[in-house]
TrEMBL record:
A Pfam family recorded for this sequence: MerR_1
Organism annotation: Paenibacillus albidus
Keyword check for Transcription regulation: yes
InterPro entries: DNA-bd_dom_put_sf, MerR-type_HTH_dom, MerR_fam
Record-given protein name: Transcriptional regulator
UniProt domain HTH merR-type: residue ranges: 1-68
Length: 121
């Protein structure tokens, strides 16, 4: 199938598919006229890529284990669990940081409202 067909079947833009190709995540066959030709398995590959992108992984991280998860169950790919643990730790740090920012903003707003209340009386 051509790149436009793959985009239509997966709901992924042609631009994203070209990016996945540049990252080595999908590999089309080049025809003599230069057109990309994708196998029917490319649909599953793109859907798998999207799954991992939605988990917050980068294309570089996905490239490290994509071949394995396409051939075996995810549980049998040794690269996956350490990456998941690392990503979860990163998210936990971000949550702590965001909670601190939220607290700071709440305190600033309370301070401003308190000053406004004092100025009006």
């Amino acid at each position: 199938m051509k790149i436009g067909e793959l985009a239509q079947q997966t709901g992924v833009s042609v631009r994203s598919l070209r990016y996945y190709e540049s990252q080595g995540l999908i590999v089309p066959i080049r025809q003599a006229n230069g057109y990309r030709e994708y196998s029917p398995l490319a649909v599953e590959t793109v859907e798998t890529i999207r799954l991992y992108l939605n988990l917050g992984l980068s294309t570089e991280e996905i490239a490290g284990f994509l071949h394995c998860v396409l051939k075996k169950k995810e549980a049998f790919c040794s690269e996956v669990m350490p990456l998941y643990r690392s990503k979860l730790e990163e998210i936990e740090r971000q949550i702590v940081q965001l909670n601190q920012i939220k607290l700071n903003l709440t305190q600033r707003m309370a301070s401003i409202l308190e000053e406004l209340g004092e100025g009006e009386t």
